[in-house]
Amino acid sequence: MATIKDIAQLAGVSLATVSRVLNNTGKVSPALRAQVLAAVETLNYQPNAPARSLRRRETRLIGVLIPQLNHPFFGTLAYSIERFLFAEGFRILVCSAEEDAEREAEYTQLLVRQRVDGAIVAPTGLDLKWSAHFAHANIPIVLIDRNLPEVVASRVMVDNWQGGYQGALHLIELGHRHIGIISASRHSQAMQDRLQGALQALHDHDVAYEVYQPSAETLQQYDLGFHAALSLLAHQPTLSALFALTDVTAIGAMHAAVSQGLSIPEQLSILGFDGIELGAYLIPALTTIAQPIEQLGCKAAEILLKSIGRTQTTQEHLILPTQLLKRASTSAPMRKE
Question: Do the beta carbons of residue 182 and residue 228 sit within 8 Å?
C-alpha cells in the first residue's frame, strides 16, 4: 500500500508539501499540487481514514438510535436520514433499541466508543442514561419523533396531538358516533399525544368511544392491532369505526375485521396514523394521518450537521404538521334498516 513518503519520492517534493496537498491546508503552488496529485493517481493512494480522523478529531460517522428498526415508520425514517447524510459525505451507524432501556444505553456507549460526530435519537422514553453518555462525551444530538423535555438538545417532531384530533374529527365528520381507538406504547410521548388529541375531538363533539390500551409492551405491532380489534369488536359490537394510532396496528385491525366477515369500509371504517408507503397498496387503501417522514429525517440531519464542531449552538425546536390522506378504508357508516 502506497504511503505519503512514496508520493513525496515520486513527485520529487517534501513530505510537508504532500501533507498540505492531501489535507488542503497551507499554500502550495499549482505546479507542485499537480505533481503531487499525479503521483497520488499513479500510486492509487488511499488515505488512512482512522488516522486522518484522529488528526482532524472527526470520523464523519453519525449514530442513528431508534426504538424498533423493523417498524416501517422507523425503517423509512432511518433511510431518509442515511440518504441525506450520505450526500453530505457522512456515513451512519443504525442502532435499534427494541424499546429496551438497557439496550438503548449499551448502543449509546458503543456510539461513543466509535467516536461518532453526532447522533439522531428517537428515544424509548424509559430512561435517560443514554443522554448522559452523549453529554459526557460532548457529542451533539438531535431528538426526533419522540420528545423528552428533560433532554437539552435540538428536536424535530410532528404535531401528534393535532394529528390525533384531525383523525378523530375525520371519522366524526363522516357520521360515526361510536369509535374505537387502538393505542400503543404507554411510555411513548408521541402515542400519548395522539391519544389525547383524539379524545379531545371526541369530547368536543360528544361522541362515544372505547380505548384499547395494551396491558404489556409488545414489538409485534401487527398482532397488537389484530387482537385489539378483535377485543373491541367483541365487547362493543356497535362500533362503526376504529382509529389505530399507527398504520401497522391499523393493518392488523383490517385483518381482524376481515376475519370476522366485516366489509371495510361499509361495515367498519379503519383509520391509521403515520403514512407508511404500504398503506397506499392495501385493498382497500388505508386512510391515514400522514407524517412527513422524509422531511422529518432530513431536517434532523440538517440541524445536527450545523451543530457538529461548534462549542455552543442554539437549540432548534421544529414541529412539522401532519396531513389527512383520505383513501378507501373510511366512509360514512352504513345505515341500519
Answer: yes
- pLDDT tens digit sequence for 80-128: 999 999 999 999 999 999 989 999 999 999 999 999 999 999 998 888 8
Q: Which domains does the chain have, with CATH numbers?
A: 4-47 (1.10.260.40), 59-159+293-320 (3.40.50.2300), 160-291 (3.40.50.2300)
Cis peptide upstream of residue 30 (ω within 30 degrees of 0): no
Q: Tally Cβ neighbours within 10 Å of residue 71.
A: 20
Pairwise CA distance, residues 127 & 133, whole Å? 12
215-274-229-124 Cα dihedral, nearest 10 degrees: -10
Helix (H, G, I), strand (E, B) or coil at 73: helix
CA contacts within 13 A on the Cβ side of 249: 28
Consecutive H or E run containing 141: strand 141-144
Q: If you write DSSP's letter for every residue of 6-66 in order, what string do you get?
A: HHHHHHT--HHHHHHHHHT-S---HHHHHHHHHHHHHHT----HHHHHHHHT---EEEEEE
Coil, strand or helix at 150: coil
DSSP alpha helix (H) spans, the chain: 4-11, 15-23, 30-43, 49-56, 72-87, 101-113, 129-136, 160-174, 189-204, 221-235, 247-259, 293-307
| Of 140, 144, 245, the residue nearest 199 (C-alpha) | 245
pLDDT in tens, 236-256: 999 999 999 999 999 999 999
Digit-coded pLDDT (tens) for 292-304:
999 999 999 999 9
Q: Is the pLDDT of residue 14 over 90?
A: no
Backbone angles phi, psi at 34, to 5 degrees: -65, -40
Q: Does 55 score more than 50 pLDDT?
A: no
CB 78 within 8 A of CB 69: yes
Taking the mean position of all CA atoms in its chain, how far away is CA 158? 11
Tens digit of each residue's pLDDT (9 = 90 or more) over 272-287: 999 999 999 999 999 9
**256, 130 Cβ separation under 8 angstroms:** no
Q: Which of 152, 333, 325, 144 is nearest to 247 (CA)?
A: 325
Q: Under a CB-based contact definition with an 8 Å cutoff, are residues 319 and 155 in contact?
A: no
